[in-house]
Each structure stands twice: as C-alpha cells, then as structure tokens.
Design goal:
Blueprint: H1 3-19, H2 24-38, H3 44-49, H4 63-75, H5 79-86, H6 91-95, H7 103-113, H8 118-126, H9 138-152, E1 159-160, H10 161-175, E2 183-186, H11 188-192, E3 196-197, E4 200-205, H12 209-217, E5 224-228, E6 232-236, E7 242-248, H13 253-261, H14 264-276, E8 279-282, E9 285-288, E10 304-306, H15 310-316, H16 332-337, E11 352-353, H17 367-376, E12 381-384, H18 399-416, E13 425-433, H19 444-447, E14 452-456, H20 465-477, E15 483-484, H21 502-512, E16 515-519, H22 529-538, E17 542-545, H23 557-566, H24 580-586
Parallel strand pairs: 4-7, 11-12, 12-13, 13-14, 14-15, 15-16, 16-17
Antiparallel strand pairs: 1-3, 2-4, 5-6, 6-7, 8-9, 9-10
Helix pairs in contact: 1-2, 1-5, 1-7, 8-9, 13-15, 20-21, 21-22
Length: 589
C-alpha cells in the first residue's frame, strides 16, 4: 500500500469512529496519523524496512498505530476498518462526501430521517424535513441541497494529481527494472498536470510486449488484470485506479506518447492542422494523406513521415513542440504555429515561499525548523504567515503574540547575517482573516509593521456573491495587504469554491498592485488555471506559495508550479521568482 492508501484508511477509521461517537482523542490520533503519513516524502514501507529506524519515530505514531501500519503493509487490509464498516450503513460513505456534512451530522440525518441515498436526502431537503432536525436549520438545509450535486459528480472521486504522481513514480520505477523496456513515459491527464486524475496511462517502447505486460501484471500493487491483448494491458492498481499500458515500436513511440497524452480537444485540432498539410496523424505515426492504409493502421503502406519523437510529430504539422500542460484545446496550437508559445515557469525559478505556518498556530514545526529546511531547499527568502486571531481553532495570533513572534524573527535575521551575507531572509508576515462583517482581524497599526501580509477568507463562505466579493475587494484595497490567499476557497473533491466575482477581484488587484496567490496545497490549487491565466492577461502578478504547515509541506511547491504552467505563466508573471530586492520593488507599498 502507498502512503496515500494508508492515510486514506486511517481517515476512514477516524470518520467511522466519530460517526459512532467514539473517544475524541482516539479519533484525533487517527486523523493526525493520516496527515503525517500523507505528508511524508519517503514511503512508510521504507521507514519500516530500515533497521535503524522505527515507525514510532514518526510524529503522532505510537506502538498501536505502528502495528496497524505494519498490518496494512503486509496484508493491504485492516481488521478494525472492516469491523467498523459492518456496523455502519453504506450510505454514510456517500453522504460524508457532501461538503459541510461530517460524521456527526450524517449520523443525525440517518437516525432522525432514515436517509439512505442522495435522492432521499434531496427529497428531505425539498420537503423541509432536514431544517427541522436539531442542529441544522434552513440555512444548512439550503447548503446541503446545493452541495448534493457536487458530491454526486464523478469528477470529484478522482485522485488528486499528487496522489496520482506518487503511484506513477512507483510504477515507473518498477517498469524501468524490466530489461525489455527501452523507453517509458507516463501519459494522459497525469502528464498534462490536471488537478485530478481519473486513470493512469503508460507508453512503452519495446520489441517484447509480452515481457513488458508480464512486468506490469507482476507489480506488487496490481490487484486485478482487467484486459490483456497483444500490445495493451489494463490493470487495477492502488486506490482502485485503472492503469492502461500500451507497447509500441521505436518508430511509433513519439506518436503514441502524443496521442495518449491528449487532451482529446488538442488532438482533434492537431489532426485538423495536419490534414491541411496533406497528412494524417494517429497513435502509430504521421502519414501522407494519400497513402493507402490497411485496416491495421500499424501496417501503413504509404510514407510515414514522423512518429519516433513528439517533436517530429509537431514539426510535421508545422508546429513547435507544445508542453503537455498546455494541451487542452485552447489557443496553444495557434501559438505554436506562430512561435508564440510561452516559456513556462519552472520549479527552479522560485526564489522564495511566502505562505507558511509554524507551531505558533497550527503548524507542526517551529520557526527555526522551517527556516533550516528552507535553507536546505535553496530558498533565498520566506515569509512566516501564521494565522491571525479570528482563526481560533488554529490558536490564531493576537497583536501581542504576533509582535513577539516578529521580535524573534528580527533576532533570527540578525544571527543569520552575523558572518556576512545571510543564507536566507525571513520576512515578518501574517495571514489575516477577512471578517464576515468587513475589515481584517488585526488592526492597521500592527499590519503596517509587517513585511508581508496574506489576506484570506476562512469564515462566512456561504454569504451571497456580492458580500463575499466586497469583503475580498476591501482587503485588496487595504494598503498593508500584499496578496490574497487561496482566493476562491475551494478544496478539490471536498468543497466547491465560494460564490465570488473573480473578474472583479482581478480588476481590483490590477488597480491596486495586489498579488493573487496560487496556493500549491494539492487540495487547493487555488487560483485554478483559468483564473490564473485571466490574472496574467490583466497584468496581475501571481505568487506561488506552499501554505506549508510543516517542513514536509515545502514539497508541494511543484504542484503550484504545475498549476501555473497550465495557466501559461512564465517566470516574469510570478512575483516570487524575483530576488527579494526586486520583489520589494513590485510590492504596492
């Protein structure tokens, strides 16, 4: 089992224990363990296999949880979860996918109203029976009704890109151990960097397809073989994901990689352009349109003009090679035809991370630990942005505690500079909350002393569109606010964005010089690529930040960069690709 599998298992255990009214500390232990495991870079299997280490060395993992991790690694099953599942109606798992419905509220609905499906819940809402249940009310009933469609949408059961990537990297490592594999690449929505991934695609060059397919079937994570042909195999992998493998020869590898990367809209446009040049493109190559093709397109009798590499496929159509992240059927082919494709931002362009949390609020690591790891990552500057006082559940900072933290940062910067040029500069920051009634949760005379202010909206997300938009624009217009954090508030697969006029937000940011964030947390990736592209068009600078709550959280920066690439962003469009001196010149104050 992968780390994501084990984390998901522990989350389910926590949900079911909470549904049954289990001990709150036991529920919290499973949730904390899930978060720890999901955030690990290395696999828990590698930790357990190291004789010098123990699973109990991991934060929040005691002997009992370590034993359960071992059981999952050995058997891919957890008896406790199986036992809990038997005692809970199956509909519970569907209902808990509805944003705003946790285990406790689901139990109230099942017990009080006998809810046994999405449809029965929808009927109960329309009849007003949900509002009559203690703890709900008309407002909650309306929100549930609006979110049922979100939960029923199959797109919201897809893997996060980061989860898919963990599986893909393990799979590629396994397949590259096969001597018959000459070239191998992942394709599909994973390669395009989509926020969520439905299945995984592999393209392999080999003259021995049987040996390659045998290798896939022998992977430790393969739970079932769904289909097997002469050159294609489909299997079921971790978390139930389908994995499709295609084996081609050298002449077709580039054409197959391009074809199976997609998207469908991009490929249709590419074939149309090729046809204008008297060519036809399929997964086996680029052929002269006048060629006589047999029923088996692998045996084209006419001239094959390209196919070994993707670059040759695009060149045959008169185009520059298009980065996979841009292949969504928008304007990328026109740009490729005119030599106007953007030089996309890369992870190595990022100079600083400007949104993170420490143990002062809801982070897992101290200020010193976050700085140490930031230095090891080669960052030139970071901003410590713990929560403001409104976020009480995260022990948000009031003015007194915040100023004390900033004094610590001043001393830390002084010590870093003792031997000359410091390895990193730590900015005094804060993540302030936009209050429901308007304004921010810390006064301007405090914020005026900050180096960097992130303004975010965490409460009142169900307010009307005009009210939420007004709150965000008010924050944008505050002279002390540097950037708007996760501007639409969505959580992929969990919660839709709040209703906001994003065009008005972008216009206000352009007018005031305020930055907008791409939050790199894999659950957020907010702004999405469409909004980030619109911000670029308006001249608004983007900040890509991790929102790290631990030192391991720095790893997700690559997810934010991938999102920026899908938006067509270049390094110049991203504020934190600049030196600190250059960044300060960009800031509105």
């Amino acid at each position: 089992m992968t780390n994501a599998d084990i984390a998901a298992t522990f989350e389910q255990v926590a949900d079911l224990l909470e549904y049954q009214g289990g001990n709150v500390f036991r529920v919290r232990a499973y949730r904390n363990a899930a978060r720890t495991i999901d955030g690990l870079v290395e696999s828990v299997a590698a930790v357990r296999a190291d004789p010098k280490r123990s699973l109990t060395d991991l934060e929040g993992i005691g002997a009992d949880l370590a034993d359960k991790i071992g059981t999952l690694l050995d058997t891919a099953e957890l008896p406790l979860l199986a036992e809990l599942r038997k005692s809970v109606p199956s509909v519970v798992f569907d209902l808990m996918r509805i944003p705003g419905l946790g285990p406790k509220k689901v139990k109230l609905l099942v017990d009080a109203l006998g809810i046994d499906s999405f449809e029965s819940l929808e009927t109960a809402c329309r009849e007003g029976r949900v509002a009559a249940v203690k703890g709900f009310g008309a407002k909650t009933q309306s929100a549930i009704l609006g979110n049922i469609g979100f939960a029923k949408n199959p797109d919201h059961t897809r893997l996060l890109w980061q989860e898919a990537d963990a599986i893909m990297q393990d799979l590629l490592g396994w397949m590259r151990g096969c001597p018959e594999v000459r070239q191998i690449e992942g394709a599909g929505s994973w390669r395009r960097g989509r926020e969520t991934v439905g299945d995984l695609d592999l393209v392999v060059e080999s003259g021995e397809p049987t040996a390659v397919m045998d290798r896939l079937c022998g992977w430790k994570e393969t739970s079932a073989v769904l289909l097997r042909g002469d050159t294609k195999t489909s299997v079921r992998g971790p978390q139930g994901v389908q994995i499709d493998l295609r084996v081609v020869d050298h002449r077709s590898f580039g054409a197959a990689l391009q074809y199976f990367t997609g998207s469908k809209e991009h490929n249709v446009g590419l074939r149309s352009l090729a046809r204008e040049r008297g060519l036809t493109i399929n997964e086996y190559g680029v052929y002269e349109l006048t060629s006589e093709l047999t029923d088996d397109t692998k045996s084209a009798k006419g001239l094959c003009v390209a196919g070994a590499t993707e670059q040759d496929v695009y060149k045959a159509a008169g185009l520059s090679w298009v980065s996979p992240e841009l292949r969504e059927g928008r304007d990328e082919l026109t740009a490729a035809a005119h030599g106007e494709l953007p030089h996309l931002v890369e992870l190595g362009d990022i100079c600083g991370d400007l949104h993170m949390h420490t143990t002062a609020t809801d982070g897992e690591d101290t200020l010193a630990e976050m700085v140490r790891v930031a230095i090891s990552r080669g960052l030139h500057y970071i901003a410590i942005t713990d929560h403001g006082q409104r976020v009480t559940m995260a022990r948000g900072l009031d003015a007194r505690r915040l100023l004390t933290q900033w004094e610590q940062i001043d001393r830390l910067n002084e010590s870093l500079a003792e031997d000359g040029r410091p390895p990193i500069v730590v900015l005094k920051g804060i993540e302030v909350d936009m209050l429901e009634k308007g304004g921010l949760d810390l006064p301007d005379d405090v914020l005026s002393q900050a180096d960097w202010v992130v303004a975010s909206l965490h409460y009142g997300q169900n307010q009307p569109r005009d009210r939420i938009t007004a709150r965000i624009i008010e924050a944008i217009e505050n002279p002390h606010v540097s950037v708007i954090g996760h501007p639409t508030g969505r959580l992929l697969n969990r919660r839709p964005p709040y209703d906001v006029d994003i065009e008005a937000v972008i216009a206000a940011a352009q007018r005031t010089g305020t930055f907008l964030e791409i939050n790199a947390n894999p659950w957020r990736l907010d702004l999405n690529e469409h909004h980030a592209a619109a911000a670029k068009k308006a001249g608004v600078k983007i900040v890509i930040s991790t929102d790290a709550h631990s030192t391991q959280g720095f790893d997700v920066m690559r997810c934010g960069v991938l999102q920026a690439r899908r938006a067509g962003l270049e390094a110049g469009d991203v504020a934190n690709t600049r030196t600190l001196a250059e960044l300060r010149k960009l800031m509105k104050r």
